[in-house]
Amino acid sequence: MCLPVPGKILAIEENDDPSLRGGTVSFGGVGRRVNLAYVPQAQAGDYVIVHAGFALNTVDAQEAQRIFNDLEEIDRLNDKS
User: Fold this and answer.
1) Which of 26, 32, 30, 68 is nearest to 46 (CA)?
2) Class for the domain spanning 5-80
3) What is the DSSP secondary-structure string of 22-68?
4) 18-41 confidence digits (pLDDT tens)
5) With pLDDT > 90 as the criterion, what percentage of the chain qualifies?
6) What are phi and psi of 62, to 5 degrees?
């Protein structure tokens, strides 16, 4: 199962073709290339929800932290079973 997860945009690479707008997004300190075409308003420092290599929408830092906490709790519960 794939889960959309939040990440923080570190850098953006603009492109003449808006569908190829991309950037580097940090997931727990690991940078990955992500397509940012669906979030044209996003800037470096913003948090985005990413699924299958595409940023689907932006979220504020508080919402991103809530999601991180929820994922940690899921992981903790899985370790108990």
Assistant:
1) 26
2) mainly beta
3) EEEEEETTEEEEEE-TT-TT--TT-EEEEETTEEEEEE-HHHHHHHH
4) 999 999 999 989 999 999 999 999
5) 78
6) -65, -40
